[in-house]
Amino acid sequence: MSIEFFTRLPLHGETFHLPGDPRNRGDWNNPSRPGTGAVSNFAVGDDFTYIDYLSQIARGAEIAGFDGVLMVNTQFGEEPWIVSSLLARETKRLKFVAAFHPSSTSPWNAAQAAATYQRATGGRLVWNIIQGSSEAAQRAIGDELPHDERYERAGEFVHAVRGYFGSESFTYRGKYYSASGGGLRGPLRKAPIPRICTAGASDAAKEFAAQHADYYLLLAEDPAIVAEHIRDVRERALKYGRSDIQFGLSVDVIARATDAEARAEAKRIFDEGVAAGVVDVVASITEQLSPTFQKRRKLYHDKEVRDYDDLFIAPNLWSGYGYIGIPPGFALVGDYAAIVERIREFQALGISLFFIAGYPHLEEAYRIGEHILPHFRSERVGARVPANDDAAAGDGFERPLAFASGLDTKQRHSGANG
Ligand SMILES: Cc1cc2nc3c(=O)[nH]c(=O)nc-3n(C[C@H](O)[C@H](O)[C@H](O)COP(=O)(O)O)c2cc1C
Hints:
The protein is of the alpha/beta class. The chain has a single domain (4-253, 342-388), classed as Luciferase-like domain (TIM Barrel), CATH 3.20.20. 40% of the residues lie in helices and 16% in strands. The strands form 2 sheets. An 8-stranded parallel β-barrel has the order 1-2-3-4-7-8-9-13, surrounded by 8 helices. It has a two-stranded antiparallel sheet with strand order 5-6. A hairpin with a 2-residue loop joins strand 10 and strand 11 (317-318). Helix 1 packs parallel to helix 13 (361-371). The two termini are 21 Å apart. Flavin mononucleotide is lined by residues 72-73, 99, 128, 130-133, 199-202, 204-205, 217-219, 250, 285, 288-289, 355.
């Protein structure tokens, strides 16, 4: 099975320290305290702003060999489609996963905007269709539909978007949307529809994914629970005649040369939470998605969990971020070999798309790119994976003699991969 690796663009600031700490890059902190730069002052041209920092991460990610970046959509964060557009021409091949609510646009507007983006970038847009983490959050952005109906509407939304991409004369009468003879025309017809991802543990979310999504996304948690979600969504998809639905997994990574160094980093951030008295500030996403997390949280209340290392829920899988308000909440913590092994285990369960990131995102994109991604080189499709064996690939470039001499093609090849 092929495998893809995306990392994340932090659209609401870095969290190398606790959220709100002014030492974090970005300006998601108390405005009365000095920040560290990468702050948006609305003064274009005389300063570096947060988008410049995001641009560095995006470029770093693609240099490090990532296929794409995930952008989470929250009320207090930058808007993902806009960021995708701003950064598309600062990058060459990186894909951008833009999360959005169907309620924020119309199927036609989404189809046309996506077609323009796809044409301009060579098809680098991926959609993550979201429904909101709570009723209150949805009402705050003007969406009054109850939970399950939001998924019903999302189903119609995707149906209509596929209709516009697939036909110049799409006609449809639904409960939420309609179209009479619409569709992408002229050169826009050449654009590929974005890959469609979605997430959510509710029945409505899974049914929506089963019927309409290319990828169902999960948080890393107890592998047995991940396996059960995959089985469930696969079975539901088969009901709709779909055997090709794929699975993505989001998990933070604290990877270091030794296990002790990785654990020290987990302890560092957890201790910041203890010192600030914020332990147990839990990201709602983590709570909603994870039965394991809810169980562990109860243990925390019952005082059975006290230190950072009580929060491993499976080998190398640490839930500590979830206790100090840093979503998605779970991280793989360990030496490089252990992280590769854990990724392989999730891959064996059926995951083919990994979203892995660390803090700060820029430095950790390079670290993961250098120490983790090379282990998966032969299974990566479509990615320009950094390698030093291009000479063997017959790419037409002339090599300096010193490099080319003394080794035949086969020797050079096996040396680079070994
Ligand atoms: C990898 C991943 C990325 C997500 N990204 C977002 C996001 O950007 N914005 C958001 O509001 N919810 C996001 N979610 C949450 C889900 O889309 C969904 O709204 C949530 O899980 C609640 O679904 P449910 O109530 O139907 O179970 C994400 C979930 C996962 C697993």
